[in-house]
Write a structure and sequence with these properties.
Number of strands: 7
CATH superfamily: NAD(P)-binding Rossmann-like Domain
Distance between the termini: 24 Å
CATH class: Alpha Beta
Largest sheet: 7 strands, parallel
Number of domains: 1
CATH architecture: 3-Layer(aba) Sandwich
Order of helices and strands: EHEHEHEHEHEHHHE
Strand content: 15-25%
Structural class: alpha/beta
Number of helices: 8
Length: 253
């Protein structure tokens, strides 16, 4: 991708799954990469010259200190990939308020906190790109995932508002994946369940995490200078017909 070499990139939730694939992609593009993740063991497994800071996006003071450390270490910030997120599946009537709060704190408030801190740096430096992790679950209903769906819908609207307020200095985009073949997904689904899900996806398979990482890289690059305020769907056609939302169960991160 044009314009990623030497860029200073922060990736949250970069220790595993889509986040780890995104770290590998930006390192391969020649970017200078830092990761904030609550999993220090996972961070140690990352390949490449990566700055890692252990912090939970729900811990406001620790997160602020982590962002400051990253900005100081990189000498600035050009790109934020706001990837950290969780899912705690429950039917609506069975959602515990503690689980609701945890999902909302990570998926929405955490995204807000990191984005605001990054945006302040980027506005002062007169440029930058923020890519927030949305989901097709923020665009259509998904039984069993009310907290997750609500948080991702809010991230999409946050992205749109940020794009309007921060233009033309900072571009802001949301990426909305469908099913992604992460280790967590493989651990939770049997082979039979995986095959059943794949039959509902027009392209007949889950996305590879590297495919989501490639979209992040494109949106952050000089190849996408006119893309802002969008919720970019990457779901193998899952939501194209509007019927996929009737299913239960998914791994969106």
């Amino acid at each position: 991708m044009r314009g990623l070499a030497g860029k200073r990139v922060l990736i949250t939730g970069g220790a595993r799954g889509i986040g780890a694939a995104t770290v590998a992609r930006f390192v391969a593009e020649g970017a200078r990469v830092a990761v904030i993740d609550a999993d220090p063991d996972g961070c140690r497994d990352l390949v490449g010259p990566v700055v890692t800071v252990a912090a939970d996006v729900t811990d406001g003071p620790a997160l602020a200190a982590a962002v400051d450390r990253v900005v100081a270490g990189l000498g600035g910030l050009d790109v934020l990939i706001n990837n950290a997120g969780i899912s705690v599946p429950h039917r609506f009537l069975e959602i515990d308020p503690t689980d609701w709060q945890r999902v909302t704190e990570v998926n929405l408030t955490g995204v807000f906190r990191v984005a605001q801190a990054a945006a302040r740096v980027m506005v002062r430096a007169d440029g930058g790109v923020i890519v927030n992790m949305g989901s097709v679950s923020g665009l259509v209903g998904m039984p069993g995932y009310a907290a997750y769906n609500a948080s991702k819908a809010a991230v999409i609207e946050l992205t749109r508002t940020m794009a309007l307020e921060l233009a033309p200095t900072v571009r802001v985009v949301a990426v909305c994946p469908g099913y992604v073949l992460t280790p967590m997904q493989q651990a939770e689904y049997t082979d039979q369940e995986m095959a059943a899900v794949n039959r509902t996806i027009p392209l007949g398979r889950h996305a590879d995490p590297g495919e989501i990482a490639a979209l992040f890289a494109f949106l952050a690059s000089d190849e996408a200078p006119f893309i802002t305020g969008s919720a970019v769907v990457i779901d193998g056609g899952e939501t194209a017909g509007g019927l996929a939302s009737a299913r239960t169960g998914s791994d969106r991160e």
